[in-house]
Amino acid sequence: MPAAHLAGYSLIVFMIGTFASGILFSRISVKHINKNMEKDGVLPPSWDKGIGASVSFYIFSMFFERSRIPTPMFDGRFVAKYSRPIDKVIGAVHLISVTGMMLCLCIVSYFSK
After folding, report:
1. Per-domain residue ranges for the chain?
2. What is the model's pTM?
3. How far apart are CA 70 and CA 23, in angstroms?
């Protein structure tokens, strides 16, 4: 099987994984983390009102220490503090799926005629 066909099928699998984990993370994990942040008196990002743009910020602050530096837009210290093991699993699936989807998209676009 040529690399483009294998990458194309993998792209579909990674895309489904990205969408499913994105929905799960925004519905389960972000809601839980925001609720605990509000108990500490820290407001969730005001620039994200329902569109889910903060999901990638939350995932990066869970896994990468440099993303936990407080900025005027986002304070990632509390995300790492309040994330549960299931949040980290869903976040890891999302991070791997997005990375795999981008890699497969590059392979498919390179080998397509």
Report:
1. 3-111
2. 0.84
3. 26
